[in-house]
Amino acid sequence: MSKKRLVDTKKGMLRQALLWQLERFVPWEALEDLLWGDDKDGGPYNTRGNIHIHIMRLRDEGYNIEVWNKVGVRMRETPLNRKKYHFGNPRGRYGKSH
Q: In this prediction, what percent of the chain has a pLDDT beyond 70?
């Protein structure tokens, strides 16, 4: 597996985790465990720094991501993820009418 593919895989996992918890903060520890929990060596030395790099790349793609150092990371709803991931259901987030 090439290095670029590995980075893309981690970025994709991060994007999916933040989309799954859209508008909610995901704790740093949960993200670290998701991305490197199965790594025998425990992952990179600076896991938060690596997560920041992936966040920067996702922001470059148009995602609105907030970082709070003591809380975690939150993705905000944008026209990009609403269109691409079918958010904005007129019947509400859980399919119920208002």
A: 72
